[in-house]
Write a structure and sequence with these properties.
Layout: H1 5-11, E1 18-19, H2 25-35, E2 37-40, H3 46-61, E3 75-78, H4 81-84, H5 86-92, H6 95-105, E4 112-122, E5 148-154, E6 166-167, E7 186-187, E8 195-199, E9 204-205, E10 215-224, H7 233-236, H8 239-242, H9 247-253, H10 282-285, H11 296-308
The structure holds 2-oxoglutaric acid (AKG).
Residues 120, 129, 152, 165, 204-206, 217 line the site of 2-oxoglutaric acid.
Length: 309
């Protein structure tokens, strides 16, 4: 018997791989490297999501929609979440995501860093977003190295109807100019508390929301320590706020050297009243005013890499 056209179309939609919350990192990386994206189910419980929403909902409610088609005229994007939302901080530092960032990004840098924090609320009536690669934030200058690890935490359920992220599994090695056919596009359908993990190279975009409800995702992304961050963390989380954070989070948002010589500063004080050439960490604790571009471990790491090359 011939299947109706609608059933055939459904059958050919690519499916994203779902892994359990206790997945090991090797399994996650195998799928991520193959498909460019993977969903880890049920990582957060309802109490954690409720605590997050209590912090961020007032900011989301006050955020106006985008003013162009890419950001979405029926989509709101709310940032500065490290500063605004303590519950977000635990997700930025989630052990599974940090392990994935180590595996994906450390081959190309001495340190990785936070790239952006953004609550993306896709509202009813929002059409599907242009399918793109997030690595195009840096244009097409980066060749084939992997610059970015991305997550979207499902704050609400993600369904095909309410705007689940469109993802093209297996598109990592596509030329930039290739456009996906409808049958090549999958949908990151997942329950609230799950997380879509995807690379900077996979083709994807926000989905169309044909439902009556908002779809809310918490986009937390990471990049190589030597690249410009998409959300300027020094303005979004200035020293007075960053000073109150744990040291490992301070370093991840950027208050650390990106490599031996990347990111130092000199406090612009009168002659003799402050140090010269110190790590940005000095702006938080003033602890080590010794003139140094970075720590000797970073210098040794670069020297060893140069000698191997
Ligand atoms: O919200 C989503 O599902 C994806 C959004 C996205 O890819 C973007 O805004 O760059």
């Amino acid at each position: 018997m011939t299947e109706p056209a609608a059933a055939q179309a459904t059958a050919t939609i690519p499916q994203l791989t779902h892994l359990p919350a206790d997945t090991d990192i090797d399994t996650l990386m195998t799928v991520l490297r193959r498909d460019g994206a993977v969903i880890v189910d049920a990582v957060l419980d309802t109490a954690t999501i409720a605590a997050l929403r209590a912090e961020v909902d007032p900011y989301i409610a006050a955020t106006p929609p985008g003013s162009d088609d890419f950001t979405g005229r029926q989509t709101t994007r709310t940032g500065a979440l490290v500063a605004r939302s303590p519950a977000t901080r635990a997700l930025v530092m989630h052990p599974l995501i940090r392990a994935a960032a180590d595996a994906l990004l450390l081959p190309f840098c001495e340190r990785w860093q936070l790239h952006l924090t953004q609550l993306i609320r896709i509202r009813p009536g929002q059409p599907a977003q242009y399918i793109h690669r997030d690595r195009w934030a840096w244009g097409t200058h980066l060749g084939h190295l992997e610059p970015q690890l991305n997550t979207i935490w499902a704050v609400t359920d993600f369904t095909r109807a309410n705007g689940a992220t469109q993802v093209v599994p297996g598109s990592l090695d596509w030329p930039d100019a290739r456009r996906p056919e409808p049958h090549e596009i999958g949908y990151a359908e997942m329950r609230a508390g799950s997380v879509l993990v995807y690379s900077g190279g996979v083709f994807h975009g926000g989905g169309a929301n044909s439902s009556d409800d908002d779809r809310i995702g918490l986009n937390l992304t990471y990049t190589l320590g030597w690249l410009r961050q998409e959300e300027n963390q020094y303005l979004a989380c200035p020293p007075d706020v960053a000073r109150t954070l744990p040291a490992d989070l301070q370093a991840v948002i950027g208050y650390a050297m990106g490599s031996y010589a990347l990111g130092y500063y000199t406090p612009p004080l009168p002659p003799g009243q402050g140090p010269e050439i110190v790590s940005p960490k000095y702006a938080l604790d003033g602890a080590d005013g010794t003139m140094s571009m970075g720590d000797t471990g970073l210098l040794a790491s670069i020297t060893a890499a140069v000698e191997r090359a």
